[in-house]
Amino acid sequence: MSHSVSRHSVGGPVEAGAPGLPASGGALGGASVPSRRRGPTPTARRQRRAAFLFLAPACFMVAVYVVWPIVSTIRLSFFNWDGMTEPTFIGLANYIELLHTPTFYTALKNNLIWLVLFLLAPPMGLGVALYLNQAVAGIRIVKSLFFAPFVLSGVVVGLVFSWFYDPTFGLLAMILGHGVPVLGDPRYATFGIVFAALWPQTAYCMILYLTGLTTLNAEQIEAARMEGAQGWSMLWHVILPQLRPTTFMAIVVTIIGALRSFDLISVMTGGGPFESSTVLAYFMYDQAIKYYRIGYSAAIAVVLFGIMLVYIVYHLRRMLRAEQ
């Protein structure tokens, strides 16, 4: 009798199946023993080690050829250096001078023109890719003709369009019936160079979209056809959503190409006439190679890198938000 009373006085009968108490509580007063966490298995450790070894060379190359040059350029932009003598720290003087230089604003305006007009390349490349994505006779020859501008160097493209624009014997003068000094007029020079650059850039975007069209989900397209989708509705609601990663890549590559444009400007106008067609990349080269102002050139490069970073981060966030 006393035994049962003592059991009830502690807080009720302790049984194996009592609610709220674990069956193994027993002698430990109902306290459960926390399970010991198991570490990674030997197989998981080997997989991590293998992944690290595979990534290490690429990470090393990125650190040496991408990260370190960026850090070095940012550091160099705070110095006055001609490439031969000892660098002299001058703080933000290069950036202050840059903000008071009219050529900088001309180059910035031309970069904006390049950026706006160059974004025509992805939709034009998509249109050409949709046209070439057909199983008809002779389509391979047509594909090779559209692919040809991509394999040409920028110097060759610049020379071809320089002859095309020549007001004396150029093809444009023959078409119009009179010569137009496209590359010799400050009003038209930048637009003429951008038009020349769109030729290979459209071909590059076409290749990206041709590759993306091969990965489309045929079942979704067939289901949309059964629902009556065709033409623009098929393109807008079925095909373009599946091409979103390809579109992102095409836009990013096009933006980078527009902001780092250099070779065509160097070949076709040399930044002229009267520095009217210069851009930040050519302005940076001009200051470094012609005038030996390496620190000032580094400041221009940092500004150009910041502009690129803003655009790329913006489009990357848009893509990630759309994916979510």
Using the coordinates above, name the CATH class of the largest domain. Mainly Alpha
Radius of gyration: 32 Å
Largest sheet, order of strands side by side? Answer: 1-2
Q: If you consult CATH, what is the topology of the largest domain?
A: MetI-like fold
Cα shape? flat
CATH architecture of the largest domain: Orthogonal Bundle
Residue windows where pLDDT falls under 50 for at least 5 positions: 1-30
Q: Helicity range of the residues?
A: 55-70%
Order of helices and strands: HHEEHHHHHHHHHHHHH
Biggest sheet statistics: 2 strands, antiparallel
Determine the N-to-C terminus distance. 68 Å
SS elements, strand count? 2
Membrane topology: Multi-pass membrane protein
Organism: Paraburkholderia sprentiae WSM5005
Subcellular location: Cell membrane
Main location: membrane
Explain this structure.
Helix 7 (154-165) packs across helix 9 (189-213), helix 9 runs antiparallel to helix 12 and helix 14 runs antiparallel to helix 15. By secondary structure, this protein is an all-alpha fold. The relative contact order is 0.11. The chain has helices spanning 2-11, 42-76, 93-99, 102-118, 121-132, 139-151, 154-165, 171-176, 189-213, 218-226, 232-242, 244-259, 263-268, 280-290, 294-323, and strands at residues 79-80, 88-89. The model is unreliable at 1-30 (pLDDT under 50). It folds into 2 domains: 48-89, no CATH class; 98-323, MetI-like fold, CATH 1.10.3720. A two-stranded antiparallel sheet has the order 1-2. It is flat and about 70 Å long.
